Structure formats: structure tokens, C-alpha cells
Amino acid sequence: MNYLVIDLEMCKVPRDYRSKRYKYANETIQIGAVLLDEEFKRIGTLSQFVHPEHGVIDYFIENLTGIKNGQVKHTPRLQKALLHMLNWIGDREYKVYAWSGSDRAQILHEIKAKNIVDEKIASFMEESRWVDYQDIFMKRYEMSRKMSLEEALGRADIDPEGRFHDGLNDAVNTGLLIEKLELNPDYQLVSYEMPEKSSEHLSSSLGEVFAGMELKLA
């Protein structure tokens, strides 16, 4: 059994651009994929830009992901990109891992809206094939709230590769987390201690607060 770790980056579909044909708020612009062997070791990587048919890359998304409109203008649409990835996997038996269930939900939305009908893609999208590793992480460590990938890597003492919100880098880093935790079932997360109370008054402007936030779109 092999393990395909994927991560999507998405752009926004402005409300004025939505219609009965495409009513969703986001559209895929990048698919990052990492193939792991039966020992969860990386054996291949794939990064594809995807041409959005309805959405646009605004300043926020460009700043978050580093992806510009010019990079996706002449790239394949979603169906062709998915088939290219599946041909890259070949005839291997595989499970699909993602950080949260949002990536599968996004692809399902786009398949429906774009009338994509293909047996290989349908097999790829079967619910039984997909694993939500964020959910596994939460249940394993009995967490009361969802963690971002960045926070989970920190708690697992893993130095991330590349920048966050790049599809390939996020897939690579999710793979590193999966490898460490699956090969070390008794691993205990790093504990964070709250800073000591200070008599000094701490304050932040809204700009400073938002500047320090990581907003996960994929």
C-alpha cells in the first residue's frame, strides 16, 4: 500500500461571479502531492497549477500563497490535472491523506459544478480511500479543538520544509508528520507552557493581530 498526501491551494470566487453553474466560494489553483511508500517514506512529489474557470487570484491570495494569476492562466483545468496525477501514481494501491476533510469536499464541489465524469477520478474520490489526518491527530491526542498544520508540526517537533500555504510544501510537511507519528505510535507531543504573568500591560492593534495569523484555505 502506498500513501498519497495532497494539499490544495484555492482562490476566491467573487459573489458576483457565482451562478447556478458554480455557486461555491473557492476554486482550486494548485495541487501539491507527495507519494509515500509502505513505510511512509517519500518516493515522489508532484506540484501542479490549475486554471480557475470562475475564480480570481486577488492580492490576499497572492500574498498568502505566492501564486500569481499569470502562473495559472495557461495551465490545465481541474480534470486534466487530476488525471495527470493519477497517471503519475500508476497502478499502485493507495490511500489518500489530507490535513482535514476540506480538500476532498472542495474537489467534490468542483467535480459536480464542472460536470466532470471519469471513472479514474470517481475511484480516486471514493470516501473509503480518503483519510483525514487532522481528525486522526485530534483523536489520538484527545484534543478539544482543531489544530493547524503549522501548530501540529510544532507540537511534533518537526522543522517544516519551505513556506506554508504552498500546496507542495504543505503536502510534504503533512507527510513528515504522518511518517513520524505512524512509525512512532507512542510518541508524545511537545508540551507548551503558558508564559508567566506579567504586570506589564500587553496590547495589540487589529493590524498586528491579523499580521500574525495564518489562515488555512486548503
From TrEMBL:
TM segment ranges: none
Top-level taxon of the source organism: Bacteria
SUPFAM superfamilies: Ribonuclease H-like
Signal sequence coordinates: none
GO molecular function: 3'-5'-RNA exonuclease activity; nucleic acid binding
UniProtKB keywords: Exonuclease, Hydrolase, Nuclease
InterPro entries: 3-5_Exoribonuclease, ERI-1_3'hExo-like, Ribonucl_H, RNaseH-like_sf, RNaseH_sf
Occurrences of domain Exonuclease (ranges): 2-187
PANTHER family: 3'-5' EXONUCLEASE ERI1-RELATED, 3'-5' EXORIBONUCLEASE 1-RELATED
Protein name: Exonuclease
Organism, scientific name: Dorea formicigenerans ATCC 27755
